[in-house]
Design goal:
alpha+beta, six-stranded mixed β-sheet, five-stranded antiparallel β-sheet, 16% helix
């Protein structure tokens, strides 16, 4: 009898040590996640949600960084709360272990310290290793994804295919300037959205150039106008030097050009009719055009630290071998 007790104590002790030996390990296999999403609004609190497929064995779910532990709820499809285990690794990241369930499981929680407001611009940094969706509240239509402009129009969010790091920025209150320009017999509205002070707006009818003075650096400047007014490809100059920009089709026949000037000075936007006289644009002069097609909004993939994982599994394998050897020795002694 004592041998059986020793065996049980030994096995339990080794199992307890395993999570400590590897911060990457968790109880249960990796969950089949049917849905992963975060919801953004004009708030410092971000909402997260995971929908986990039913499973006959325990499964583990990694959570986003910044979890408010008191906000975690785990329920089935009928809203009935389910038991779960919460694990932390050495970096402070949390994961949840869900016990066997015959129905899908819904995990909800809030995130903090990933969304900040500075000078009218919300900045949110999100990282996850699997494909996830980012949903926006109704008042958010225009935002910047890794400095590229995206306008949602009739869509309610984007999909980050394959997971990765997302830097999302959007205005708390949209700072909009409307300038009217005339060309031949037509009149056009040029919309400028920026927190930077804009002065000396001008339209050159002969070259169809738009120019204005930017009086603050490192702030987004987005210009929206009818595309026929100054056809693409576009060239944007800051103090007579070409700068990078991103392009989005905001609505039918309208285009939005977004830039982030690194210094103050004069911005000149010119279209295809005048750009022929300028030097040819190289691939590095403009950013890839971004459209609101959320299926194509792919971010940089996260590459795991392979060497660290290899070491972890070596440690785990060694522990399991020791367990097996000890069990065999004890069982042989019991038979004798």
């Amino acid at each position: 009898m004592n041998n059986y007790i020793y065996l049980i104590v030994l096995v339990l002790a080794l199992i307890t040590v395993i999570p400590t030996a590897s911060a990457q390990l968790s109880l249960g296999i990796e969950a089949n996640q049917k849905l992963i999403e975060v919801e953004l609004n004009a708030s410092e609190i971000v909402n997260a949600k995971h929908v986990i497929a039913a499973s006959n064995i325990p499964v583990s779910v990694n959570l986003f960084n910044g979890v408010i532990l008191e906000s975690i709820t785990v329920t089935n499809g009928n809203g009935v709360e389910k038991e779960f285990g919460l694990l932390n690794n050495e970096k402070g990241n949390q994961s949840i272990t869900i016990f066997p369930s015959k129905s899908n499981i819904i995990i909800k929680y809030d995130l903090e310290d990933i969304s900040t407001l500075y000078e009218n611009l919300w900045t949110v940094r999100i990282e996850y290793s699997e494909t996830f969706s980012v949903l926006f509240s109704e008042e958010i239509d225009l935002f910047f994804l890794n400095d590229n402009i995206i306008q949602l129009q009739n869509k309610n969010g984007i999909s980050v295919n394959g997971g990765g790091n997302a830097l999302i920025q959007y205005y708390d209150k949209i700072p909009k300037i409307i300038e009217e320009v005339s060309w031949k017999e037509d009149k056009f509205n040029v919309e400028i959205i920026t927190d930077s002070k804009i002065t000396e707006f001008n339209f050159d009818q002969e070259s169809k150039n738009i120019s204005f003075q930017v009086n603050e650096k490192n702030k987004f400047v987005t210009v929206t106008m009818e595309e026929k007014f100054s056809g693409s490809p576009y060239v944007i100059l800051l103090n007579d030097e070409k700068i990078k920009y991103s392009k989005s089709i905001s609505k039918e026949n309208y285009v939005s050009l977004s830039m982030k000037p690194q210094t103050v000075g004069e911005i000149i936007i010119t279209g295809s009719e005048y750009s022929d006289s300028l030097s040819k644009i190289t691939p590095d002069d403009t950013l890839t055009e971004v459209t609101p097609d959320i299926s194509n909004d792919t971010l940089t993939e996260v590459t795991p630290d392979i060497s660290n994982d290899y070491f972890i599994w070596l440690v785990l394998g060694g522990i399991l071998i020791i367990v097996v050897i000890v069990v065999i020795i004890i069982m042989r002694k019991i038979k004798k």
